[in-house]
Prior knowledge:
It is globular and about 60 Å long. The chain is 75% helix and 0% strand. It is mainly alpha-helical. It has one domain. α2 packs parallel to α6 (136-155). The chain contains 17 helices and no strands. The protein has helices at 11-27, 35-61, 66-95, 102-109, 113-123, 136-155, 159-183, 192-195, 197-200, 202-213, 217-226, 230-244, 248-252, 254-272, 277-283, 286-309, 316-347.
Amino acid sequence: MAAEGGFIPSLNGMRALSILLVFLSHTVSNKIFPGGFGVRIFFVISGFLITRLLFVELKAYGKIDLAQFYIRRLLRLYPVIVCFTVVVVAASAIWWPSRLHLIEILSGLFYFANYYYSRLSETGQTGEIMPFIIFWSLSVEEHFYIFFPLIFALFRKSLSNLIGFCLFLCGLCLSLRIFGALSRPELLHTKVFYFETQYQIDAIVYGVLVAVLCELARGRALLRTLCHPAIPLAALALIGLCFAYRDLFFRETVRYSFLSLSIAVLMTNVLFSPGLDLAKRVLNLPILEYVGRLSYSIYLWHYAIVSLIGLPMLSKWVGVPLIALMTALVSMASYHLIEQPVAALRHRHKSVAPREAI
């Protein structure tokens, strides 16, 4: 369970299922396919992976190089973001110039899309918007990763304190959602609790907690306990309850915590349970493995295609397969022509210069 370098099976399969939920939510029906649940899975996986990579670096060099961490994050995300922005702006300028709004473009490039679109939902401005709303989740992640490496470096010699800090953040996010819903109940009818960082980073933190527990003997014992067959079944039941119970206050407050915790438990079982052979075989199918690798590009480009082409002019029987085909082609091009070449450059920034490391 302890962090070490190398490929982690099953995670790309989980990413593939997550992006499928998001895609179907945006193209078929968000009432049938819970795209927000797919995004939440991404959050938990992201928290787990980033923390695990930090542990690998800490074990290899004894220190964390913060400058290299931020360079790697920049190289991981920004090349595709810049290409996406150029294409969307050019297409909008040609076909829908009325949609061009500088503030929306900047919100995507500088990671404040979640707050910008939250304010739009709060004020009821739900007219035509640009595809940069898809950057809301990336904004949440990047806000967390601005300060998390600093926290990790501070607590690297006291993992019990790091666990305590993570539990505090999880409790704080839940408390903020409850307080916000009680003090301003009108926000329950907006996207404020869904979009804004202070209400959503606990999903990432649950993934961080799993990675930290992997580094402690007592933590590994706890994770093994979570792999008892009854626990993942309980997690699935809790997820089912979250979807079935429609009370608005519950859905915008406690539900997010229940879903994140359940996803963390299921991820733990997928990664570390000695059973679940069928689930693991499915998640590691070559097609799901490949779609998982494409998931970042799919996440961005499918929404641009849906927004710029749209479904109203086409029946869903024609439109959804057409958009799926276009998304597949564009995402493969994005992955192989942008992400992969830049990945080689990103790998050069894995070494730690002792004099600059923390």
